[in-house]
Every structure is written in structure tokens, then in C-alpha cells.
Write a structure and sequence with these properties.
Two copies of one chain form a homodimer.
Chain A (H helix, E strand, L loop, with lengths): L5 E8 L2 E8 L2 E5 L1 E4 L11 H6 L5 E3 L1 H6 L3 H6 L3 H5 L5 E3 L3 H6 L2 E5 L4 E4 L6 E4 L1 H11 L3 E3 L11 H23 L3 H5 L1 E6 L5 H14 L3 E4 L8 H8 L2 H4 L6 E3 L5 H9 L4 E4 L1 H7 L2 E2 L6 E2 L19 H5 L2 H9 L3 H28 L2 H12 L6
Parallel strand pairs in A: 4-14, 5-6, 6-10, 10-11, 11-12, 12-13, 13-14
Antiparallel strand pairs in A: 1-2, 2-3, 7-8, 8-9, 15-16
Helix pairs in contact in A: 6-7, 7-9, 12-17, 13-16, 15-16, 16-17
């Protein structure tokens, strides 16, 4: 019988860990980057090409999927894996973040959050119990507890109250998950630490989560505009407050240099729309920093997006061709830029894993930053 | 040394011909369907996937490419094949059709056509000589003569005058092509028959073209709104007016049943945006007629787009998933619908070729129409 959720740490380098999460649908190499498949598709990518880029796991969005095509429909069609043609692990978020950032007329109380769909104005509700039900219907492998987010600039009172409510919701998520029967046999549940930038709130949140017990722990409430310095400030202490034997997941992060710094601070898992979203608007990641392929200086540049990249796009397409495609608004431009960016992210994760294994992470990270941050975004 | 342009007819069945065109960049099986790669990309498709669908040759648009990124730039970047990553034959049109249908403030005289770009308002000119130059700069394998189009509903005088001018331009195209040096070593030149729906004008045009001499002959000026009956009426006589030893190309056609009827009437080559354009808007071709995947009845349909189809999309994706993707405006929806449609067209061409080889074309065509036209477009 395949393991439900076995996290093994193979090596450490400073606070960074090289590991693997073994699950029934496949093994996730950590530190891991999870491409975002918002609406049952990693935008502009076929599933086999996402896999070929090196991804072991995708993220699906509860909020988007519950609205369209609906969790119940996905369930009737055999679950999210079958629906979208991805047979490896899928992590689903709880809907908590998107319901606050995308929906309208949101009403929150202790029960949960009710809101109007940004698609068609219909009213919906998410509570911890409903979030667990949706993620169960989708067939998620890694289920996230439902939490409440507030801006890091909220008053201390608001920050504390949101963290405390999130911990009550974490317990309700745990209970609903455990009551879910068949789901609990194969899936894992992660708790989410809140507490904004406050070390004491973060500690209180971590202790509450550890008391409940989860398969993994996310550092939530970051990457919401606080800036890299403030985020790293939290990451200097937050991972250490969590269970060292479980994976630590930094939600919604981030830029390549964010990821390198977070891995150095002990984070094992990441997700972000940046490689896919920026690919669609013409931004390509390279080891010497991001470039905007729309820039006129690329119009007759016969070189690849990134001379240091081994992806199929860099092997076959010139900057001049991609410049043309993106400027002309061609779908193939979005496809190829996205594919390159996903390879870039996965190659970075592979290099980080290799450096941790070799005990050379500090050297790698220093050299990476020297190259990547050497010049402003062109 | 590979052949420049060798057309071999392997079998005939009624007026239909099974053949091959051998060129330096590859062999084109006929009857052939050429996907349209307007702006140096078959929209939403990677070149390798276009090839995997069974395409031996692509069409590129002179009008679009001369405006963006410009023929001169494509030439400096090594030609269209290298630029877009397609190493097999490419046919380029002359720009004559698009300049009339897409550009603004068009002025025609005996020299050529001057026009304002639909992209940025800049003024440009195409003459027979400039069209040959552009197609040479692009590195086209099959170059089309520059012609003048008028609606089939024009007066007899206008129809006749446009045909006669097109024949003078055909001669200038031939002379400019032959003067082109290196280009003439590897590329072929096709003449375009005009004459609207008039059998005598078509005969006069054919005789003028045969007098000049071309590697192949296109039936031009059709598929411009005259309807299938009128088009087939012309195809009942027009192919027979041309050189039986050369390929006959019906430009801009068409619907699957148009193609079947045209093959029965002796046409060897086709191009059309229909499979790609309609794929992007949610229409899928099936052997029992086109379907619109946005239709609510497909929302929970777990079957493939077309049970009779062997394409990768039908193997991996349900109608329900494609319904979701197209409704959500996802790029992957456009990608997969386009891929299926291109496979559908190439499978139809393969079946037509097999039927001609077996001497069973009438039976195949009758059965195809019975299935395909049995019900109105859903």
C-alpha cells in the first residue's frame, strides 16, 4: 500500500532542508515549486508539458473551481485529476485568500464567509466545513485549512482576532476533514499559521496548530504587499515555531530571489502565479534577471530567452520570434513564455535541492543573487 | 540533389487524383490541406504539434508578415522557416486577397495596390514585383502570383477587366520570380486563375496562365460568399481548363464538405482558417457535423469531442473539460480545440487519399456527407 503522506528529510544545510514527500499519487521533491492551475488548467500549458518542466505537484484554487465548474460537477466527472488530466498530487487552497481578494459584498462572521461571485453575482458561502467538503469533492491530495486573512497593516487587535479565529477554524477544518471518511484515507491536511508580522502572534498561532496536529504547516498571510524585507523578517523566526519534522509551505511566494531567501530560512514548498501570469504579459525569467520580451532591443535578437536555460523553448525559439509573437498578441507567445518560465522555476528548485544536498547552499544563493539582482528589470 | 518541384499522380478516381509533390524541404501528399500560419504561427499550436497532426505544408500570409515583423526582418533572421521553427514546405500567398479585405484606403492601378496598414496606419504598396520580393525574402517554397480580386457580384465588365489585369500581373510575377536568382533555384511559382463564375472568363484566364507556364495553378476568386452550389458549379469546369499534370489549388477552402466535393472535382490542395479560427471560438469538427462545445448539453459529457477521432485531444480530454475551458476563456481551450480540428482536417485528407487510391471515393464521399450533413450545426 502506497504511503498517505511520508515526509523524509535527506539533508540539511543551515536551516534549509532537502527532502521528499511520498504520497499515493507520486513523490514531491522538496523544496518544491507548485505551478498554479487556477481553473483546472495551468494557463496556456498542457499537463504533460507542466510535468516535463519538472513539476511534481500542482495547486488548484477552491474559490475558482467552486464557482466554475463547481466542486459538485468536478466530483461527478471523476475528480479534478481526471477532469484536467493530471495524475500526480494536487494541493488545493482553502478559498480563504481569493474570497477576500476577488469576490464582492463579502460578509464574515464566526461561521464563515459569504460572498457574491465575481463571475455571475450569485451568492455563496465558505466555512471551514464547506471548504473541507469542496476540497474533498475535488479529490485534493493536500487540503488546506480554512483561514481568515487581514492586511498586515491592520491594527494589532484586528491582527490578533483574525489569528485567533483562524485557529478556531483550523480546529473545525481538522474535525471536518477527519469526519470526511474516504477522503481522509489518501489525503493530507495542512494548517496555516497566521499572526501577520508579529512574532508573539505567530508563536501563539503555531502552538495552536501544533496542538491540533497537521501533516504540514503553511506560513500564511505573507506576500500580500509587506515587501521582501518584512517577509524575510517573519521567515527568520516563523518556520522554527512549526514542527521541524513536517513540511513548511510559504503560500503565494514568489519572485525567484524570494524563493531562494525563503529556502535558506527553512521553507519546503512554494506556489505562485508569477511564472505563468508574467509569461502571458511578456516577462521572461533569466538567471541574470527578468526581461520584458516586448522591448525593442529584442526585435532581431537571435539568441534564446536565457543562454543558461535548457528548456525546449530556449532550444527552439529566438528572442526575436518571441518578441514578434508577444507583440502580435499571438497565443503561441503566451504558451512559449509560460513554458520557459515554468522550466526556469523548476530548474531553480533543482539547483537549490542540489546545493542543499552538497552543503553549498550559501555559495549558490550568493552567486544566484549576484547574477539575478545585478541590474534592474529591463 | 533533391527535386525542386516534382508532382506525381499515383492514382485517379473519377476527376480526383492521389499524388505527391516532392520538394527540397519535404514531400506533400495530395490532396493536401495546408493549415494557415498567418503571422508566422499556426495560432495556438506549436510547430511540432502541427506536424504531428499530419500537415506536410503550411501557408504563410504575405500581407500580415510584410507589416509585422516585415519581410526584411524575417530575412535578416534567417527566413520564415527558421524564424517560426517549421522546416517543411511553406506556401505563401501573394498578399492580394488580404490587401483588399483587411487594409484601408486601398488604391489600385496597373502598377499595383497601395494601402494603409490595418495595424498602424503606415502606407505600403504591393505590386507583382514587390510580392515576389517579399515571398523571396520570407524564403517561401511555393510562391503565389499577385492577382486582383473583385466580388463575384461585380459587373461583367469589372470581372473581365480584373481577370485581364490579373493575367498581366501573372506575367510580371513570373518575370520577377525568374529574375530572383537564388530563390528560383529551390522554390516553385503558382499562377492563379480568375474570372469569377464565368466559364468563358475562366477559360481565357486559364489559357493565359498556361501560356506563361507555372508549377501549379490555383483556382482563385472563390470562397468569397458565392455559396457552395455556385463554387461547385465553377469547379465542374475550372480544374479541367488547367494543366492536368500540375497541382490544382483551391484557395481559402473550406468546410469539410466543401473539401470533399472539391476533391471529387479534381482539386489537389486547400488552405483555410476554419479549423484554427473556429477552434478558438468553441466549434469542433466531428464526422457527424460540427458541434459548439459551449453548448450546455456538453457540461457533464465525459465522452471525447468525436468518438471517431484518434487525436491526442480526444484521447485525453472530455467534452465536459473542453466545455469548461472554453467557457472560462482559458488559453488551453483554444489550444486543444485547435489541435483537434487540425487533426480532423488531416484525417479527412488521409481518408480522401486512401479512398482515391482504392477507387472508392464516391462511396466514401456519399457516406461522409450522409454522416456530416445529417443534422444542423448544434
Amino acid at each position: 500500500m502506497p504511503p498517505r503522506f511520508d515526509f523524509t528529510i535527506h539533508a540539511t544545510d543551515g536551516k534549509a532542508r532537502l527532502g521528499e514527500i511520498a504520497m499515493r499519487r507520486g513523490t514531491i521533491r522538496t523544496p518544491a515549486f507548485m505551478p498554479v492551475g487556477t481553473a483546472a488548467t495551468v494557463k496556456a500549458m498542457k499537463p504533460q508539458d507542466v510535468r516535463a518542466s519538472g513539476a511534481d505537484i500542482l495547486l488548484g484554487n477552491t474559490y475558482h473551481l467552486m464557482l466554475r465548474p463547481s466542486a459538485e460537477r468536478v466530483h461527478r466527472l471523476g475528480g479534478l485529476h481526471k477532469f484536467m488530466g493530471w495524475d500526480r498530487p494536487i494541493l488545493t487552497d482553502s478559498g480563504g485568500y481569493q474570497v477576500m481578494s476577488l469576490s464582492e459584498l463579502t460578509k464574515r462572521n464566526e461561521e464563515g464567509v459569504s460572498f457574491k461571485s465575481h463571475l455571475d453575482g450569485t451568492r455563496h458561502m465558505i466555512s471551514p466545513e464547506r471548504s473541507m467538503e469542496i476540497q474533498r469533492l475535488l479529490g485534493s491530495d493536500i487540503v488546506m485549512a480554512f483561514d481568515e486573512l487581514v492586511p498586515t497593516t491592520s491594527t494589532r487587535e484586528v491582527r490578533g482576532a483574525a489569528m485567533e479565529r483562524s485557529m478556531r477554524w483550523a480546529k473545525r477544518s481538522r474535525d471536518a476533514f477527519d469526519a470526511g471518511g474516504d477522503h481522509a484515507e489518501g489525503a493530507a491536511l495542512f494548517g496555516i499559521q497566521q499572526g501577520a508580522l508579529d512574532q508573539d502572534l505567530r508563536k501563539e498561532s503555531a502552538d495552536a496548530l501544533l496542538d491540533i496536529g497537521f501533516d504540514g504547516y503553511a506560513v500564511g498571510g505573507l506576500a500580500v504587499g509587506e515587501g521582501q524585507e518584512a517577509m524575510f523578517g517573519v521567515l527568520d523566526f516563523a518556520p522554527g515555531q512549526l514542527d521541524a519534522t513536517k513540511p513548511r509551505y510559504l503560500m503565494g511566494v514568489g519572485k525567484p530571489d524570494d524563493i531562494v531567501g525563503a529556502v535558506e530560512r527553512g521553507i519546503d514548498m512554494f506556489d505562485c502565479v508569477l511564472p505563468t501570469r508574467s509569461g502571458r504579459t511578456g516577462q521572461a525569467f533569466t538567471r541574470t534577471g527578468p526581461i520584458n520580451i516586448r522591448n525593442a532591443r529584442f526585435a532581431e535578437d537571435t539568441g534564446p530567452l536565457d543562454p543558461a536555460c535548457g528548456c525546449p523553448v530556449c532550444a527552439n525559439s529566438s528572442r526575436a520570434y518571441l518578441h514578434h509573437l508577444v507583440r502580435a498578441g499571438e497565443i503561441l507567445g503566451a504558451m512559449l513564455m509560460t513554458e520557459h518560465n515554468l522550466y526556469f522555476y523548476q530548474a531553480l528548485m533543482a539547483d537549490l535541492r542540489a546545493a542543499i544536498g552538497d552543503g553549498t547552499l550559501t555559495r549558490f544563493a550568493t552567486a544566484f543573487r549576484a547574477d539575478y539582482l545585478a541590474r534592474p528589470d529591463s
